[in-house]
Queue: 4 jobs
Job 1
Amino acid sequence: MSSSPPTAEKAKSDRALRFYQDVLGLERLHYGMWLPEDSLTMDSLKAAQKRYEDFLVESIPDGARRILDVGCGTGELCMNLKAAGYDVEGLSPDINQKRVFAEKVDAPFHFTKFEESQLDGGYDLIIMSESCQYIPIDKVFEVAAKALAPNGHLMVCDYFVLDQDAGELSKSGHDYNDFLAKAESSPFEIVARRDITQDIRKTLEIADDWAGKILLGADILTEKFRSRNPFLWKILKWFGSSKYEKAVSQRVLLDADKFAAVKKYEFFLFKLN
Ligand SMILES: C[S@@+](CC[C@H](N)C(=O)[O-])C[C@H]1O[C@@H](n2cnc3c(N)ncnc32)[C@H](O)[C@@H]1O
């Protein structure tokens, strides 16, 4: 493990991991796949995340043994793949994920960005679960093709942007048409795909529900203070305005209808020819 002092970025990522795991009790970092009848509860969210992971595992092509999980997050998928008998390796540029992985999975870990990786290659399957969007689009297929064994597979499950003019919502995810064009000009062919945009929407709904409650809670807690100290409240608001405005402008990211209008969350299985 690295002994260098934590940078602000590392500390931020560590806080995010601790929030997911210690506060929310979540072991996984992705949106999950909900059922239409699911209620918006923490247990349903955990079940949705497990359902998504099961779907990825069931989609592993027959005969695949050696698997690289790119952007392996908390190592949960790797741990379960290893338990199922696969020969698995994790990869992430995140030092805190490296630590969590080492505690959880007895398997090789590549501490690097995928696009900068120096892998020996020979993998039967590379999985990018909600991590493809962080890898430069020009490098996704190029680096995967080098790291895979002949006729190997690349599994990508992630969200993509359909409308580049939708403000905050357009900021994360590869452009859908660009991604398909890169795939088309690569040595890969699509052998399976599934649009799961509707299956993930309850994750946004539950997050929006929490955000609403937090804002309402803050409103209730500050009500007395605001009425007794209007001037002081104005000053405090002025100091906190950039953060407050950012939070308000980013709440659109939790709007499930807008997400579905601007983005597509899709599963792809590519085969290397
Ligand atoms: C949203 S998390 C998804 C984690 C996990 N795959 C899952 O489905 O829960 C994104 C992951 O991508 C990783 N990541 C970010 N940039 C990356 C890069 N350039 N190369 C490889 N992984 C990257 C992050 O460290 C993190 O593990």
Job 2
Amino acid sequence: MSAQLVNAAHEVDKSFLFIFGASALLLALLTAAMLWFVFRYNRKRHPVADQTEGNLWAEIVWTVLPTILVMGMFVSGWSSYKALRQVPAGALEVKVTARMWTWDFEYAGGRKSKILYAPVGRPVKLLLSSEDVLHGFYAPAFRIKIDTVPGMTTYAWFTAEKEGDYVVFCSVYCGLQHAKMLTSIRAVSQAAFDAWLAEGAVRSEEAPGRALLENKGCLGCHSLDGSPAVGPSFKDLWGRKVILVAPNGSKSTVTTDEGYLRRAILGPKDRTVEGFDPIMPSFGGQISEDEMTLILDFLRTGGKPPKDGRAVAEAEGCLSCHAEDRSVLVGPGFQGLWGSKVTAEGPGGEHDVLVDRQVVLEALSLPGKLQLKGFDPIMPAYPDLSDEDREALLGWLESLGTDGHNVHSGPGGHTP
Ligand code: HEC
Ligand code: HEC
Ligand SMILES: [Cu+2]
């Protein structure tokens, strides 16, 4: 045996065949001997039993033969075991993380995936661990089955010889969705693999929120389409009312706003959603603030592209009083408004105000509160804007603003 075996699976097969063959032979011999004794020494042919004591040859044969056989099985088993444990040099390393109830794969360079991509003909070394309980990585096509243990890294390797999809199971009973803890190994040509690896970084940015939920394993327990799963579906999660149950059984109703969702994800949780088991792991320390923003955005918008703020402004009629550029219609032009200083007048006289998120929110809910100098107080209130529309509008205004040196004056005044 050399350390450069192309594929340990063949060694496993050889060993299996040997042991199977030896067992089959033994079974055949024993059955034949048994039948022979039944025939030759039954009561008709052999009414009186012989008493035989101490047959040296028979004792040698039944000691030596089985010993040889068992040693043969050991040697062949050992050689296949060695092949499984000796990873050829130059193997591609992939990090495998098991968690209830999904598999994550991470490649050099940071690309992650939910199914294991492997180039045909190249040995792949798996470095396995678990985030929660004991699982087992079982890929029968490649004759590997190895435990994944929390807090410990185990390894295994394989070489795919043909392109195709090969199933991967979890081999350790690990809870409710154990049977669904499936993934596959997708063997592709080296060229296709390289292309996939290169394209990866770009593609995972397309829907970063969704990719994150997938990478963090959330989608193993939460559905996106409203279908029932281990946890509540993420569909329309934002802003709904949920009933929470405390360990002592008392119930309370909360609205799923940002603060609540943060706590639900980062824990520690003192209450669980009614009708569900308290098995959601707490992700405190595992989710950065940037990632949290992406997740919350995704939960809020359901991954739909954000609404176009300009379209909202048009639909709500803002553009009949406000121009998109700096020109003044009935109200100040939107361009450059955000982030600029405006002069407001009130009972206490004139004062400068910086137009920021707070000011715009107020303009939409209590337009009379801040009265711009030189304009008529006719800006209507928009108390019924949906959160989504309001955020889209704010985003759009912000994108038009912040050059800092704007002067807005009323229709009677002069435009800079
Ligand atoms: C092992 C399964 C599991 C995983 C993994 C999991 N959750 Fe949960 N999650 C649950 C269960 C069960 C509940 C409901 C019980 C409770 O409140 O703890 C829940 C509740 C929640 C809630 C509150 C939902 C509501 O209706 O109030 C949010 C938000 C949430 N999970 C987000 C996440 C996010 C984000 C991730 C990934 C970072 C994640 N979960 C990973 C099982 C899971
Ligand atoms: C009927 C005309 C009219 C419509 C429609 C209108 N505005 Fe105004 N808006 C004004 C006038 C006039 C002012 C300046 C007087 C004032 O401050 O109330 C103003 C002021 C503002 C300001 C400056 C901040 C402030 O508190 O004064 C913002 C921001 C603004 N509007 C945004 C909007 C948005 C967004 C919409 C659409 C959802 C909208 N406006 C619709 C007339 C209008
Ligand atoms: Cu498992």
Job 3
Amino acid sequence: MTQVILVDDEQSVRDSARQWLELSDLTVRDFDNARDALGCITRDFAGIVLSDVKMPDIDGLAFQKKIARIDPHIPVVLFTGHGDIAMAVEAIRAGAYDFLEKPFDPERIVETIKRALEKRQLVLENRQLKKALQDSEGIDSRLVGGSAPMRTLKREIANIAPTIANVLILGETGTGKEVIARSIHTLSDRGKGPYLALNCAAIPVNMAESELFGHKSGAFTGAQGKRVGKLEAANNGTLFLDELGSMPMDVQGKLLRALECMEITPLGGNTPRPVQFRLLSAMNEDPRKAIEEGRLREDLYFRLNTVELLVPPLRERKEDIPILFSFFLERAADVYGRTVEPPTAESLAIMMSHDWPGNVRELKSLSERFVLSSLPHEERIPKLLSGKVVDRRESAVALRDQVNLFERHLIKESLARHDGNVKDVIADLRVPRRTLNEKMAKYGLKRP
Ligand SMILES: Nc1ncnc2c1ncn2[C@@H]1O[C@H](COP(=O)(O)OP(=O)(O)OP(=O)(O)O)[C@@H](O)[C@H]1O
Ligand SMILES: [Mg+2]
């Protein structure tokens, strides 16, 4: 990887500078003019530029300005002869990093360049951190929940989103597969391209092929006008195929062929068209079972599951219930124009003991009914969930454990909200410092 781009129209200067730099283990690429050098400088260039000031065609000052337009944070160090100090000073004013007088002092040159390289490294690291942070915040605002399984899942999403890999999202109904598909699209390089979703269970079997591939006018009885298929409409974007196991087997075969050559032929058409899209798919059943039962082609499955994401059911991440509920509650209150108090600790404890067969979707609809309910506040959850609470005696979570889980959640959330400032947390939760310390130790909580 090039660390120093060296530009000077004089061969002898280039040779001696290069020699010194290479003796100090720096990788150098040299050019006899600025124009050629510019071709190799991009915004993520991880090095610095060392350039002569006086050059025919593009001089050092103009060169520096052009580099600044690519990225103002690429350090540019200028060589100056006697006559061009004034120009170098102007360049510094315009943002150049430093200048070195010719004939140069080898030690000074190496030292200046190492310093400039360190600075460049910092800029790139910061930029990367910022982007990672933005990405994870982007996920956090869509995909609520900070339990350990959710954090792992979010990390996986942030990791695979920028790639072009096909992703198969597996999870029970209502766990958030569609939200995840959208997040992957948004966080990917195709985020600006189209996002299309097709629910294979919701289209009549005989329409599936035309939905995916499109058709020419009159391709089959009832085909009025032509139709652009989802595969073509998703060109340069993402296609999300929901409930994959409901796609007719023959259409699965055709889809597989289309994926292999990235070409599609609309029904009734005869010229294939090249397409580029990323395929995300989801199933709420076990794909191996669907394969055994002859509803999913194994070869297609292996094509689509380059990455498999498993979304855990809500009962395996009960820690997320309070925050998800308050998230949905706020939105529901907004939508219905109501103000609403958060649920009582008893209500939350009941929610913690529920099994949530409908997962997050069920929790979301509970929040809506909670907002709209005419019952006294503290009776809402017990009534709305009555008969639904799974009483498995031994295996049910004990009340004490539920209360603990809830308490832990409150402290953790307050710590995060106050950036770990214990004083603020004490004021927020109205607990003595000692109690807070004890509870943090008990629940294994640390300041963020
Ligand atoms: N972690 C989450 N944060 C915020 N909202 C969520 C989360 N998970 C799910 N939801 C919401 O819950 C509802 C159900 O989610 P989604 O439609 O993505 O589920 P699904 O896994 O696709 O279910 P199905 O298999 O039934 O299609 C949606 O309204 C979605 O916005
Ligand atoms: Mg879905």
Job 4
Amino acid sequence: MESHLTTSWENKLSLASSEASSILVIADSNLPKSYSKEVLDICNKESPTHIISFEGGEGIKTLSHVSEVYVHLEKMGADRKSLVVCLGGGTITDMGGFAASTYKRGVSLVHLPTTVLAMVDAAIGGKTGVNTEMQENFGLLKNQIGTFYNPKMVGINHNWLQSLKEEEILSGWGEMVKHALLKGGTHLKELMKLSPKLEDLSPMLIRSARIKEAIVNRDEKEIGERASLNLGHTVGHAIESLAHDQGREMKHGVAVAWGLVFALEASVMKMGFDPTTAEELQNWIVSEILKGIEVDGADAVWSKMSQDKKNVKGNVIDVLMIAPGEVKWDFVWEREEFTILWEKFRGRYT
Ligand SMILES: NC(=O)c1ccc[n+]([C@@H]2O[C@H](COP(=O)([O-])OP(=O)(O)OC[C@H]3O[C@@H](n4cnc5c(N)ncnc54)[C@H](O)[C@@H]3O)[C@@H](O)[C@H]2O)c1
Ligand SMILES: [Zn+2]
């Protein structure tokens, strides 16, 4: 499949707009107004353009927000040739992408990601989704409702990251580290030389996004290799979810970075990953996260891990590495083994 990623987003957006009967820009209201103005100016030249704003965050990934988008599309008289442009982080691209993929069975879609995480991850690969809303017995279930739907383009504009908080940059960096471990070679070496600051990371963003894009293109529907993108996420999700349950702030990408540190430890024990390389990588990741980690014991983590929707038949499936760039994406944990390793890891980092 050809690449949808582009840094010449202005030209490509103009082209997509000229092919559209009408346009709806879904923008994050936390963004400086100049960003949406820039986008509206381009779209409006080619086709009648409307805008709807939502405050980005996990809370907007609901069917009621999707409904608001549908209503807006109805009111503006959208048809099957209309275009939806998502300008924001991963919550805007996930929710807006879902709305675009289902309205009249799918209208054209453009993603203009404004967070590091959305540029290298959420806007790439065609997964859209919303969460199920809070129910008494189920709580909030993430990304339970979704589609596979490719945007016409994903436009990368580094300038939009200037307003992003440092913690959001660090969170996106966690996913960039994951991509670098999956790729290995010089890409990993180059990323290791950089600090998780915007000036350093900017030139690496599109390369990181292309690593994900290449994996997805080889396995769009996650039959095999795409699962390798869950590296660091089995434990990462458990860390994130336990922190949330206890009212502690924990960014997704930071939890993933800790998940990667653990995956390296486990890869040495279970996959014969070179211990010196693993230690070098672990020291690098931990030194950049800076903050220490507060983690629970193996029982709590195991219990969260076994709720993961990717598990099959009650086994906990994880991604480990044989070496950087060489991945085993269907490793199965036994509880006892995990417990020993987790307690060792916990002892080392807390
Ligand atoms: N579809 C996929 O394949 C995929 C992959 C990874 C993550 N995701 C999803 O992505 C979401 C997380 O994305 P995110 O980290 O971008 O979160 P987000 O959309 O919540 O953005 C983070 C915060 O930054 C603000 N923000 C966004 N851009 C800004 C900018 N340029 N300047 C100032 N503030 C800005 C937002 O308003 C929000 O408060 C999750 O819901 C996750 O499930 C999806
Ligand atoms: Zn992630």
